[in-house]
Amino acid sequence: MKNIKVLWAIITVLSLILAGIGYQFVVGSVITAKDGRIAIVLTKGERNFVLGEMRGLLANMQQLVSAAADKDIDKTIRIAKKLIDDSKGAKQLSIIAKTPINFKRLTNNIHAQFKTLYSDAVEKRDPNHSLKQVSIIMQNCIVCHGAYQLTELNK
């Protein structure tokens, strides 16, 4: 009988820990920013990592727009492939744990759109189609930047 009580106590504690982890995964580490957006609270290193990745992806997007505007489909394809490769970058679990679920959905959607952009560029070989896809991807960027900001953890 005593073993059953200990077992239930262990199950209860583990359930609470899992619920806490699940809550953290969904809600993230956030506060409301002064401008009303959701501020994701990161360490300085984490924030710099995310901002560096975003700058790199933005630079690739600009190069892709330029290549597509020049009707250079081969260069468009190369840069679209680079977007996929660069967006696979090093994952930091601490950052993933701190981002809310809707942020995760937006970023996963953008990364999936990079794959579609690449496969369509290879298959259709139409720079105008690629430009339209970039426009749609950028709309997601605008939504994300309008809803979220990255803030440093004050220690």
Task: Report on the architecture of this protein.
The chain has 155 residues and is mainly alpha-helical. It has one domain: Cytochrome c/b562 (Four Helix Bundle (Hemerythrin (Met), subunit A)). The longest helix is centred in the N-terminal third of the chain and has 26 residues.
Which key features would you list for this structure?
76% helix, mainly alpha, three-stranded mixed β-sheet, 155 residues, single chain, Four Helix Bundle (Hemerythrin (Met), subunit A), 3 strands
The string of secondary-structure elements, in order, is HEEHHHHHE
Structural class: mainly alpha
Low-confidence stretches: none
Determine Rg (CA atoms, Å): 21 Å
Per the CATH scheme, the topology name is Four Helix Bundle (Hemerythrin (Met), subunit A)
* Oligomer description: single chain
Number of strands: 3
Per CATH, which architecture?
Up-down Bundle
Strand content is 5-15%
Q: How would you name the CATH homologous superfamily? A: Cytochrome c/b562
Q: What is the helical fraction, as a range of percent? A: over 70%
Q: Give average pLDDT, whole number.
A: 87
Count of all domains:
1
The profile of the biggest β sheet is:
3 strands, mixed
GO biological process, one term: electron transport chain
GO molecular function: electron transfer activity; heme binding; iron ion binding
InterPro entries: Cyt_c/b562
Transmembrane segments: 6-27
